[in-house]
């Protein structure tokens, strides 16, 4: 029942490969940033050139401005000046906010409003103006603030919207979404029709609508109707619901607010580093962010939201528009596809065009091929990891992409070669798309926003196959080529940006995605004769060469640097201090290895007190500092049932604005108050961090259980930068390495004992 290769088989395989190349080209073309509009653009549209001038005024000096810093106050005043220059009347709302993760700070949110024609719920447009200590935050989130200002200017030039627009430029996002916490605590969710958050996780790229609320059909409709060049997918929504990542919108949707997070992710190696500066934010990126934010804000402010209930499945089609339907349709669509394809398989068996045994074998080989592709991706990750040493976004990352894509293609081509002469094209066709339909049904329950990636191609195959069978009693080429192209259109936008968005560890996932795209080639390769083994060989060689290139091309560069911070740490009574490396990977750069003698050590106070043992860190002996250490003085102890409230006075004699209290996760501490303000927050791992601490310190109330009695109570204070003895290390840091997140810092620690909880002081 097998069949030999024919010229038509070669042609169909060649056409299929050409179509895949066209779809890939169109995908890459649609991911290009738009052109930036000049300053002379009409007043009612968003101009990236005007927004860039705002961004330059806000953060052009390149100075980091974390929450509570003097520079943050300067940036706050700059934001106020920009909004006042538009004729708005901004106010500063100063509140104590604590995250559910145990971070607290006094934040200063900036709030302004554009009145609507009618009363009703307002649209909240949000960006945050604080940065991390390691970088100036031009992308994250200076670009969002500049876009917000330009959107506000455009809205004032347009006819007044039906409902008000509130501009929220919040503080303390980087230390725990604290500005968002303060806003919802003060204002609640009742007066907000929707919240639009402008964010970034890099310096460049298109604007993705990557996070939205449960029951999101209304907000997806508003986005789809209004945005001229949309870039989105319900895959992002489903993944984000399951990942630990968070944005301000995560806080808002927890309070029941509708809306979305918009952001760009290009150049992820710039994230939270000194490279996140003005000159690395392209005008096209600002234009796309502003166009999207303005369009959605206008749409919701004018038309509001009509909630039809439930979630949507959705994706953009080459940024030309958004295809969407109710998520509840996914399982029924998969079932329809299964029934169509199963019926066609039975008809082929009855017509003796296909043998039942070869069909069953092919059905089993599809999932096995995807699993093999994933295993090869895992092998590539492990092999490359020897060289990459933990790099998430290496400068050589393009070779990882090529290696994964080639490996996946090799697996499917090898499958086609193995089946050649053993099964018919019809058997391979039925098996490939029946597998896709079954996978779509499973994904509809596990990760519903991603089900369309496999369900729609399977459904298209079933419909076209049924039409073909009804006409000529066989499955024609269209029933293969159309679903193949459709699958590529759906999956390639995810695959082409997967490693950029998620890092090098997702190579196995990328290999599986690419294998899903090319798996429908299998029936064509079965009929393509010797082409299948040749393609498999070429793809395998390309993958091997790409992995080899990873060992030749530098892992890091000045443009794509290695995150590497120095930490000076010293514990009271511990004698000498330590230099610690807070970096990506475990291999110490040669220049640093020459500067001091590094070794892996146990550093007790960097664990959770001494209760959880020491932390293993790459460390070196550092000269001691003649300074005062942080203090944690017990003010009082109050019994509360089987637990006790411990009142502590925390202070940094050297004036550090960050204090960290470590009690140990096994004591389930709950922060009740900071100063005279209620906090009522818990921290799963027993660490409570206080930012913006005044020179006189702060009094906190912590509820703990009886097991904490006699255990360690540790307090750290933290300041940016290193003591003078660290100058040699700073000079030795390679040009291909930069500080990230909290940056270079000095941490001093004091450890004491929790007193008897039965005592009252």
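^ Assign residues to that structure.
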């Amino acid at each position: 029942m097998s069949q030999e290769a024919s010229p038509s088989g070669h042609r169909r395989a060649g056409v299929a490969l050409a179509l895949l190349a066209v779809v890939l080209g169109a995908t890459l073309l649609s991911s290009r940033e738009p052109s930036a509009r000049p300053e002379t653009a009409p007043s009612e549209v968003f101009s990236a050139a005007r927004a860039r001038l705002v961004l330059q005024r806000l953060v052009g000096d390149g100075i980091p401005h974390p929450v509570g810093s003097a520079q943050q106050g300067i940036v706050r005043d700059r934001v106020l000046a920009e909004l006042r220059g538009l004729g708005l009347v901004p106010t500063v709302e100063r509140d104590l906010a604590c995250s559910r993760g145990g971070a607290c700070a006094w934040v200063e949110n900036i709030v302004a409003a554009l009145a609507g024609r009618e009363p009703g719920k307002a649209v909240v447009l949000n960006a945050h103006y604080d940065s991390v200590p390691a970088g100036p935050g031009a992308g994250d989130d200076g670009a969002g603030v500049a876009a917000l200002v330009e959107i506000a200017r455009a809205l004032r030039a347009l006819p007044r919207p039906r409902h008000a627009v509130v501009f929220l430029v919040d503080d303390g996002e980087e230390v725990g979404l604290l500005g968002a916490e303060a806003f919802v605590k003060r204002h609640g969710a009742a007066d907000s029709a929707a919240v639009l958050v402008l964010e970034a996780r890099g310096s460049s790229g298109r604007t993705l609508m990557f996070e939205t609320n449960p029951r999101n059909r209304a907000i997806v409709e508003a986005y789809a109707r209004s945005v001229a060049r949309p870039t989105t997918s319900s895959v992002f929504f489903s993944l984000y619901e399951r990942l630990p990542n968070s944005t301000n919108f995560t806080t808002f949707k927890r309070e029941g607010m509708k809306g979305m997070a918009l952001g760009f992710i290009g150049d992820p190696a710039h994230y939270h580093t000194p490279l996140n500066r003005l000159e690395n934010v392209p005008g096209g990126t600002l234009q796309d962010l502003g166009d999207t934010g303005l369009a959605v804000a206008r749409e919701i402010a004018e038309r509001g939201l009509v909630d039809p209930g439930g979630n949507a499945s959705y994706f953009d089609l080459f940024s030309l528009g958004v295809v969407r339907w109710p998520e509840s349709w996914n399982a029924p669509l998969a079932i329809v596809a299964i029934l169509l394809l199963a019926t066609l398989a039975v008809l082929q068996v009855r017509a003796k065009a296909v043998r039942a045994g070869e069909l069953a074998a092919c059905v089993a080989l599809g999932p096995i091929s995807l699993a093999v592709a994933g295993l090869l991706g895992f092998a590539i990750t492990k092999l490359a990891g020897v060289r990459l040493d933990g790099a998430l976004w290496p400068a050589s990352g393009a070779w990882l992409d090529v290696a994964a894509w080639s490996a996946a293609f090799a697996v499917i081509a090898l499958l086609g070669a193995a089946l050649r002469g053993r099964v018919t094209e019809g058997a391979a066709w039925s098996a490939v798309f029946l597998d896709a339909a079954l996978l779509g049904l499973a994904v509809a329950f596990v990760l519903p926003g991603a089900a369309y990636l496999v369900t729609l191609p399977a459904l298209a195959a079933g419909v076209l196959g049924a039409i073909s069978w009804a006409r000529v009693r066989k499955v024609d080429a269209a029933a293969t080529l159309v679903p193949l192209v459709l699958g590529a259109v759906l999956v390639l936008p995810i695959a082409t940006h997967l490693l950029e968005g998620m890092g090098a560890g997702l190579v196995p996932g990328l290999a599986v995605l690419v294998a899903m795209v090319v798996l429908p080639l299998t029936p064509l390769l079965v009929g393509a004769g010797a082409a299948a083994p040749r393609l498999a060989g070429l793809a395998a060689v390309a993958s091997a060469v790409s992995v080899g290139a990873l060992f030749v091309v530098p892992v890091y560069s000045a443009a794509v640097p290695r995150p590497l911070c120095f930490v000076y740490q010293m514990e009271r009574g511990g004698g000498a201090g330590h230099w610690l490396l807070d970096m990506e990977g475990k291999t110490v750069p040669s220049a640093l290895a020459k500067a001091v003698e590094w070794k892996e050590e146990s550093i007790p106070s960097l664990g959770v007190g001494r209760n959880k043992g020491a932390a293993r860190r790459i460390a070196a002996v550092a000269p001691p500092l003649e300074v005062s250490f942080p203090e944690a003085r017990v003010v009082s102890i109050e019994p509360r049932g089987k637990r006790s409230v411990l009142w502590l006075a925390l202070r940094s004699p050297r004036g550090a604005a960050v204090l960290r209290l470590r009690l140990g996760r096994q004591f389930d501490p709950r922060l009740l108050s900071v100063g005279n303000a209620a906090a009522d927050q818990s921290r799963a791992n027993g660490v409570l961090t206080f930012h913006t601490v005044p020179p006189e310190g702060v009094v906190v109330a912590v509820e703990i259980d009886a097991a904490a009695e006699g255990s360690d109570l540790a307090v750290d204070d933290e300041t940016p930068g290193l003591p003078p003895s660290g100058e040699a290390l700073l000079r030795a840091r390679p040009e291909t390495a930069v500080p990230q997140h909290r940056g270079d810092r000095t941490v001093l620690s004091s450890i004491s004992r929790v007193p008897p909880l039965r005592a009252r002081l």
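The chain has three domains: 48-318, 332-550, 561-761.
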